[in-house]
Amino acid sequence: MLRSLLLTAALVGIASVAQAAPAPAAQHPGNAATGRLLVFTCHGCHGIPGYRYAYPNYPIPKIAGQHYDYLVAALGEYRKDQRANPTMQAQAQALSEQDIRDIAAYLSSIRK
Ligand code: HEC
């Protein structure tokens, strides 16, 4: 009896530790800290005031605070030439799939 009580207590202990652990990697595989460093070059276009490129004058989408899945999908499409934009295709093709997940983790973590 005492043995099974101790066993139960130990299992409950393990369960609460497991709950406190961060979400499994499969659910959120990007590393925001790495992504923060990777988006440095993106700011030249995506971080400008008013989100319009100076010359030629064209709109730049706002990507900070965008959803993780959307960012991974958009960058993946540029990377595979499934979304046509020479600038962003070149940008995305310079990134690995892990870079894209890291960038998406960072950008989606920004709250405005
Ligand atoms: C030279 C300017 C420039 C740079 C540098 C640049 N982008 Fe872009 N980005 C654009 C433009 C212009 C678009 C809109 C393209 C289109 O219409 O498909 C865009 C679109 C996007 C989109 C799609 C947004 C949406 O709402 O669908 C994402 C995501 C994105 N860029 C991420 C990045 C990331 C991450 C980087 C850095 C690795 C980066 N961009 C660097 C100009 C740039």
Outline the secondary-structure elements:
Blueprint lengths: L1 H19 L11 H7 L4 H4 L5 E2 L4 E2 L8 H12 L6 H8 L3 H13 L3
The chain binds heme C (HEC).
Heme C (HEC) binds next to α3, α4 and α5.
Brief descriptors of the model:
single chain, 112 residues, mainly alpha, Cytochrome Bc1 Complex, Chain D, domain 2, two-stranded antiparallel sheet, 6 helices, 2 strands, binds heme C
Total number of strands: 2
Class from secondary-structure proportions: mainly alpha
Q: What is the CA-CA span between the terminal residues? A: 55 Å
Question: Looking across the biggest beta sheet, what order are the strands in?
Answer: 1-2
* The CATH architecture: Orthogonal Bundle
Shape: globular
What's the domain count?
1
Q: What's the CATH class label? A: Mainly Alpha
- Estimated radius of gyration: 21 Å
Strand content: under 5%
Structure characterization notes:
The chain has 112 residues and is mainly alpha-helical. It has helices at 2-20, 32-38, 43-46, 68-79, 86-93, 97-109; strands at 52-53, 58-59. It is built from six helices and two strands. Strand 1 and strand 2 form a beta hairpin. Helix 4 (68-79) crosses helix 5 (86-93) and helix 4 packs antiparallel against helix 6. The longest helix is centred in the first third of the chain and has 19 residues, at 2-20. It starts with a helix and ends with a helix. 15% of the residues are buried. The model is unreliable at 13-25 (pLDDT under 50). Heme C is lined by residues 39, 41-42, 44-46, 60-61, 63, 71, 74-75, 83, 85, 87-88, 91, 103.
